[in-house]
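USER: Please consider what follows.
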Amino acid sequence: MPVQAIASAPADEPAHDRLTINHPLAAVAARNCMGHTHDLADLAGGVACGSAWAKALHDDFMFALECGLPLDFEPDPTYIDEVALRRVMRGERLELTECERAEVKRRLAEVARRRNRGYRFVCSRAAAARREAR
C-alpha cells in the first residue's frame, strides 16, 4: 500500500499564510495539537503544530473522498446552518454569517413575541358544565 507523507508548509512557502485561525479546520487542528508538547514558535499560524495541521487536512481530504464530496466548491452566502443557529440560540458563541445572524434575531424576536402574547383560555362545554355543577 503506498504511503503518502504530508508535511506542513514552511513559513517561506505561499500556503503557510493560509493556515491561520480563519481556516475552516483551525479548531480541528488546535484539538489535534492539544496533546503535543512544543514551543509556541512551532505553531503554524499561531494555531497548531505542523503534524496537527497535517492530520486535520488529511482527515478532511479523506472524508471528502469517501463521501464523494467536491474538493473545491464556492460557498453559498445565503446558506443557513440550522445546527449552528440552534447552538447559538442555546447560548454558545459561534461565528455566523450575516444571513445567519439575521435569522437568529428573527427567531429570538418570534420567541419573545410568543412569550409576551396574552393567552386566551378556551374550555370545552363539558368543562363548563362541570364548573356549573359545583
Summary: The two ends are 85 Å apart (CA to CA).
